[in-house]
Amino acid sequence: MNIIVHLPNTKEGWDMLSKRMVEIHSEFIINEINNLPYSYEKKLEILEGIKQEVEGKIVHFQYRRKGGKGKDETD
After folding, report:
1. What is the DSSP letter of 63?
2. Confidence band (pLDDT; 50, 70, 90) for 64?
3. Numbers of helices and strands, H then E, in the chain
4. Are 50 and 58 within 8 A, CB to CB?
5. Distance between CA atoms of residues 1 and 34, nearest Å
6. Strand, coil or helix: what is 62?
């Protein structure tokens, strides 16, 4: 099977693609959590843990993009 992918050519196109990918990924995670055999409270706890993990990675990524050292790097 051959698949042809047409990637965006503009910054706006890449931004739209990125936002759509985040939406799809978020929907997948929420659906997977909803399918777990746990109480509503436990599902919220899992979702909050995922949220904190993602927020930590975003902060770390932004710090690294600004020239900061990662925890695996030395000064």
Report:
1. H
2. confident
3. 2, 0
4. no
5. 34
6. helix
Looking at residue 68, its amino acid is G
Q: Quick one: DSSP state of residue 68? A: P
**Side chain identity at residue 29, one-letter code:** I
Q: What is the pTM of this model?
A: 0.65
- Reading phi first (left if > 0) and then psi (alpha if -120 to 50, else beta), residue 24 is in alpha
CA 32, CA 19: separation in Å to the nearest integer? 20
Contact 52, 42 (CB under 8 A): no
Q: How many beta carbons lie within 10 A of that of residue 29, not counting itself?
A: 15
- Give tens-digit pLDDT for 2-61: 999 899 999 999 999 999 999 999 999 999 999 999 999 999 999 999 999 988 888 877
> Which are the contacts of 14, defined by CB distance < 8 A and separation ≥ 6?
8
